[in-house]
From TrEMBL:
<protein>
    <submittedName>
        <fullName>Uncharacterized protein</fullName>
    </submittedName>
</protein>
<feature type="signal peptide">
    <location>
        <begin position="1"/>
        <end position="22"/>
    </location>
</feature>
<keyword id="KW-0732">Signal</keyword>
Length: 108
C-alpha cells in the first residue's frame, strides 16, 4: 500500500476546493412617475432576482402590498398612504429594507 504524504494531500485539497461565491442582495427604489414607485433587486454578483419577494409593509407590520419581482427583477406599485418600508427578502441573510424616507424623489 502506497502512502501519500500529508503535504501532498493538503495541496490536493487546496487545488480541488472551489471558492465560495458570495453574493449580497441589492435593492433600490425611486419614484417613476407621480405616485408610482419603481423598485429593482438583484445581487452583487450581477445576477437578477426574478421571483424574489418584495413586500411593502406599514410601520405596524401589516403587509400593504405583497409582491414578487418580475422577470426583469423589477416591481412597480402606487405609493401607499402613511409610513412604510419595503422588504426585499431573498432568504436568510439576504434581506434589504428600504424606508420610505430613503426613496429617491418621494415627497414625505
Amino acid at each position: 500500500m502506497t502512502r501519500i504524504p500529508a503535504t501532498a494531500l493538503g495541496l490536493l485539497a487546496i487545488l480541488c476546493a472551489t471558492p465560495a461565491q458570495a453574493h449580497n442582495p441589492i435593492a433600490e427604489c425611486a419614484v417613476a412617475q407621480g405616485r408610482i414607485i419603481d423598485c429593482r433587486g438583484g445581487f452583487s454578483d450581477g445576477s437578477g432576482a426574478a421571483g424574489v419577494t418584495l413586500d411593502v409593509i406599514s410601520y405596524d407590520e401589516d403587509i400593504l402590498i405583497p409582491g414578487k419581482l418580475g422577470d426583469d427583477s423589477r416591481l412597480q406599485f402606487e405609493r401607499p398612504e402613511g409610513e412604510f418600508y419595503i422588504l426585499f427578502d431573498a432568504g436568510p441573510g439576504h434581506v434589504v429594507e428600504i424606508d420610505y424616507h430613503d426613496i429617491e424623489g418621494l415627497e414625505h
